[in-house]
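TA notes, week 10

Several of you asked for a full example with nothing omitted. So below is the full record: structure tokens for the whole chain, then the designed sequence directly under it. When grading your own attempts, check the secondary structure regions first.
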């Protein structure tokens, strides 16, 4: 090689000078100047050799499930490789080129979800149907006394506060009844169901009064010595709840009431329960938390089985549709009485993306528009009419019974007007069941937090409504989240709602300074951080500590720590004596 010859000739020249001096008749010590000269020459030829030698590039790193190539160093053992995922970028992030290997955009995160898993959802639908066939009220109330007095129940009780949070309380109770093989009780207040004038409830459920009557009728106390006792557990009290540490399937109390379950999170906490029997029951219903792309639409299927619109609400929905076909897409904008041009622009882009994703070839697709801000509805309608037919429930023009105050027991609170909007509260029920008629997609946009419980439940019920019993092809229903760029200045860090769709992605793996995003969204909002690109915010790490869970910055649960915590804590049992006989 040319470089080798240069090195050899240089070395020969240096040595030859030294050898000539050594053969001289008179030996003199080598001067300091000569040594310095030799060092300079050696350094020069060493650098020359390096410059002429080809440098072999370091191998490209790749991470599971990605195609982006990078020369960043491999993560240390403190951060498992599976926790640091790289996704294909759909948009360049200014100033983030050096950190792209360690974060992702919302759209990249959404690529993991794809469409709703129809196979898993149909499996859960059959599971729900079989459960109520065995533990539903029509069969259980006819059991002989010995068997009836052994029957267990789960209480679901809601108030008439926010629609999404309160409905989740009922659905969580239904889910728990399936996991524990118990019957469902839907609680009443002064003889009325929650939202009774707007929602109809399944005949498979009991009321507490009926259970008390049947308990006396079958003489469960006198004949079998079984008192009607209710054990309560409050999810919102982390130092007291037994959601992670106890085997609920072994609880002996006839009734269980799991309180404080205002979102999709509480029921999914059983996925990390230390008892394998509870984990298996939870994963059968919710799927494995780490496999986001194949999880069932659990709450959508539960809603389909447990609730339906009242006759008056259904009449308002039909009036709005005017006898036309079901809408193709729903846009829900939770703007908190604000009008944001950026939010509108991002939402319109997201609707167009949903049309493209679902390959809709209709000339003017029907789009349902739902918002808590009336002035925004007018603005978006003007823009949507250019390429779609807008469907919106205008309660001022509707003359049904529900609009005339008959049976209207919901009062609008001035304190919550900004949160819920200025319209009468019953309008939210018409909007909900109208929006859940969407055949192909639901788009969620917001002033602050995207994918709230209300939007989640719209998407979940719409997906369940569109899934046929004998579907043999992949469901094409999609749930999208629309983010304007100012919401993503710090990534998803401000999506702090505990039960909101993107909270479990709000940690350090979410890139800051993202452009507008239209991302596929999980219909079943995750409760843990096991999936790729999920990471917690510090606030949630601290919150999990109260439950006894040590969570890493990338969402990994310390299982040994949880078992140790559960063994050391004192089990708290709170009960209520339902009957005094």
């Amino acid at each position: 090689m040319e470089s080798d010859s240069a090195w050899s000739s240089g070395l020969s020249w240096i040595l030859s000078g030294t050898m000539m001096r050594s053969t001289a008749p008179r030996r003199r010590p080598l001067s300091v100047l000569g040594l310095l000269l030799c060092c300079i020459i050696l350094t020069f030829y060493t650098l020359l050799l390096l410059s002429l030698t080809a440098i072999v590039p370091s191998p490209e790193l790749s991470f599971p499930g990605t195609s982006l190539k990078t020369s960043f160093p491999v993560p240390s053992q403190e951060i498992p490789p599976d926790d640091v995922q790289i996704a294909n970028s759909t948009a360049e992030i200014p100033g983030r080129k050096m950190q792209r290997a360690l974060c992702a955009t919302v759209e990249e995160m959404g690529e993991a979800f794809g469409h709703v898993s129809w196979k898993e959802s149909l499996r859960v639908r059959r599971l729900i149907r079989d459960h109520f066939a065995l533990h539903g009220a029509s069969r259980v109330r006819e059991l002989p006394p010995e068997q009836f007095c052994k029957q267990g129940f789960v209480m679901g009780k809601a108030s008439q506060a926010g629609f999404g949070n309160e409905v989740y309380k009922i659905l969580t109770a239904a889910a728990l009844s399936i996991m524990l093989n118990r019957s469902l009780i839907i609680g009443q207040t002064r003889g009325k169901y929650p939202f009774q004038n707007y929602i109809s409830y399944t005949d498979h459920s009991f009321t507490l009064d009926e259970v008390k009557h049947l308990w006396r009728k079958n003489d469960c106390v006198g004949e079998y010595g079984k008192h009607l006792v209710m054990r309560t557990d409050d999810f919102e009290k982390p130092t007291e709840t037994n959601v992670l540490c106890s085997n609920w399937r072994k609880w002996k109390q006839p009734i269980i009431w799991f309180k404080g379950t205002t979102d999709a999170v509480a029921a999914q906490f059983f996925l990390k329960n230390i008892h394998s029997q509870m984990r298996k029951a939870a994963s059968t219903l919710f799927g494995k938390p780490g496999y986001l792309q194949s999880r069932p639409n659990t709450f959508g299927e539960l809603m389909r089985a447990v609730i339906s619109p009242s006759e008056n609400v259904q009449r308002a929905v039909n009036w709005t549709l005017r006898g036309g076909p079901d809408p193709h897409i729903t846009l829900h904008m939770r703007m908190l009485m604000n009008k944001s041009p950026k939010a509108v622009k991002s939402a319109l882009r997201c609707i167009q993306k949903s049309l493209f994703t679902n390959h809709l070839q209709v000339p003017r697709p029907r789009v349902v528009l739902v918002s808590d801000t009336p002035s925004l509805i007018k603005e978006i309608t003007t823009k949507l009419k250019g390429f779609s037919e807008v469907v919106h429930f205008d309660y001022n023009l509707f003359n049904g019974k529900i609009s005339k105050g008959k049976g209207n027991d919901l009062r609008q609170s001035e304190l919550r007007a900004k949160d819920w909007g200025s319209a009468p509260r019953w309008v939210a029920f018409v909007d909900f069941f109208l929006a859940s008629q969407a055949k192909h997609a639901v788009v969620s946009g917001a002033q602050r937090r995207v994918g709230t419980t209300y939007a989640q439940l719209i998407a979940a019920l719409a997906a369940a409504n569109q899934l046929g019993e004998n579907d043999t092809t992949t469901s094409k229903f999609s749930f999208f989240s629309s983010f304007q760029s100012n919401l993503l200045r710090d990534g998803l860090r401000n999506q702090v709602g505990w039960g909101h769709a993107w909270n479990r992605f709000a940690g350090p793996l979410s890139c800051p300074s993202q452009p507008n995003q239209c991302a596929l969204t999980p219909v079943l909002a995750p409760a843990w951080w096991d999936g790729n690109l999920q990471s917690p915010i510090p606030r949630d790490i601290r919150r999990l500590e109260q439950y006894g869970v040590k969570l890493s910055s990338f969402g990994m649960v310390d299982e040994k720590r949880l078992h140790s915590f559960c063994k050391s804590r004192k089990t708290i049992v709170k009960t209520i004596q339902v009957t005094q006989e």
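The chain is about 35% helix and 10% strand. Use that as a sanity check on your answer.
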